[in-house]
Design goal:
Blueprint: H1 2-23, E1 38-44, E2 46-47, E3 50-58, E4 61-65, E5 68-70, H2 77-89, E6 91-104, E7 113-125, E8 135-142, H3 156-164
Parallel strand pairs: 1-7
Antiparallel strand pairs: 1-5, 2-3, 3-4, 3-8, 6-7
Amino acid sequence: MAMDMEKKRRTHQRRIEKVRQRSGQHVSADASRLAVPRVRVAAVIVEKEHLLLVRHQKQGRTYWLLPGGGAEFGESLESALMRELKEETNLDIKVGHLIIVNDSIPPDRHRHVVNMCFTAQIAGGEMKLGNEKRLIEARFVPLKRLPELTFYPDIRHVLLPSIRNGFPNHAAYLGNLWKDD
């Protein structure tokens, strides 16, 4: 058991060293989140020219984003998105196509988020704001208002044309393909 923990610690240290070498910047050894990107899933739900968004308030700033959140270890992207929507909005959803993937990496590289946006449809539930500390609003916002909002990550230049054109481009998310032999 102790040997396994030591092996994991050494592997983790090697990952951090690789990040240090690539970035050319100092990275502390206990900055564990640098070694592995955070995977965030988000839902694009459009109804009658309105997009479902959530508003966060953090460190005195207010901004809008697509509803969703982090995938947990061992959780499929589809399951993570369904769970996150239920937690944030109390809505049950049917997950559609993967349409946008982007990285969010600040210049100082103190974190790395991989954002994966899927189309989705409401399958049930009644909209009700979840109890996450920074979550202050969830509602459908008119598409024409999107350019006025502080929106993170700022994918509006791709998102709005995709919505207007019926999401013509999408990737194939194949789900969990693990098979026991």
